[in-house]
Write a structure and sequence with these properties.
Order of helices and strands: HHHHHHHHHHHH
Low-confidence stretches: none
Strand content: under 5%
Distance between the termini: 33 Å
Radius of gyration: 19 Å
Largest sheet: none
């Protein structure tokens, strides 16, 4: 199995986890604001990660040599995740994911500068095709612009910054090290932002299962995403996440009676075609050249 195909499988786990987190985030949004959600999610994450590191004897993998890059990654992700939780509660889930999926376009733009990865014509074409699919799904216009749409669009930029810095971190740091600093740093960010008004809400008893689910799904999603990014370049890995779109549409219909929009499936078909084209090109056997003496 090629490294790219392994990355595809890991991203499948991320897709399930991110979708689960979206549902849980919407369910708890009436009880907690986005900063409080991030605070409790990160605190639970610290407990889980430290427990697992201690139980498996992997504490030695946590280093402090790239703290500046960890900080940049987590600032990007914290901003993107807060905007994402706000959007999930404000607009249909499928629409949130559709706008979030502009993230691979930003990854492709940022990768040559942050990672030094080559922007090939195939990757650029796949990104453009994927963006066309997103436009079909979202069909943005001045009449439809609202805070939820703006938040989802800005979240995509934050996630792109997180993706490229994660890819750079995986060159020297282990996945568990990245997850450790993710939970620790974002606990601090959450505490500062949630407490800046002097009022941090405590989750109601009915909200705790959703908060725990958000924490677990978030850790699993990031483990899968980080592993995928360690196996293949960011412009290859991130477009795979487009598969979340049809899943989100079905979840919205089943759980929240969101209207069935045929353009979602038309756009999803275009997006799937772009992904398939990109993955097919990245996994095809390369010709082996020999030099005759």
């Amino acid at each position: 199995m090629s490294q790219t195909l392994k990355a595809v499988l890991w991203m499948s786990g991320a897709i399930v986890s991110f979708t689960t987190m979206a549902v849980a985030g919407r369910e708890v949004s009436l009880d907690l604001d986005t900063f409080e959600i991030m605070l409790y999610r990160s605190l639970i994450g610290v407990v889980i990660v430290v427990t697992l590191l201690t139980a498996t004897g992997q504490t030695g993998q946590v280093t402090r040599r790239r703290l500046g890059l960890h900080l940049a990654r987590n600032l990007c992700h914290f901003a993107g995740q807060n905007l994402w939780f706000f959007a999930v509660a404000a607009i249909p889930i499928a629409q949130v994911f559709a706008l979030e999926f502009t993230s691979p376009l930003w990854v492709i733009v940022l990768s040559p500068f942050v990672l030094g990865e080559k922007l090939t014509p195939t990757r650029a074409l796949a990104a453009v095709l994927g963006f066309v699919g997103i436009l079909v799904v979202a069909r943005p216009s001045p009449e439809t612009i609202n805070p939820g749409l703006i938040a989802a669009a800005l979240a995509a930029i934050g996630f792109a910054g997180s993706a490229v810095t994660t890819r750079r971190l995986t060159r020297t740091e282990t996945t568990v090290c990245i997850l450790f600093w993710l939970t620790v740093m974002q606990s601090v960010f959450g505490l500062v932002c949630a407490g800046i008004d002097g009022d941090i809400a405590f989750p109601a008893a009915t909200s705790w299962p959703w908060v725990v689910l958000i924490a677990i799904a978030g850790l699993v999603a990031h483990y899968c995403l980080t592993t995928a990014l360690s196996l293949a370049p960011a412009p290859v890995v991130m477009p795979i996440d487009f598969a979340r779109l049809p899943v989100a549409a079905l979840i919205g219909i089943i759980l929240y009676q969101e209207a069935l929009d045929p353009y979602v499936f038309i756009g999803a078909t275009i997006i799937f075609g772009a992904n398939y084209f990109n993955i097919l090109h990245e996994t095809r056997p390369r010709p082996v050249t020999t030099t005759q003496k």
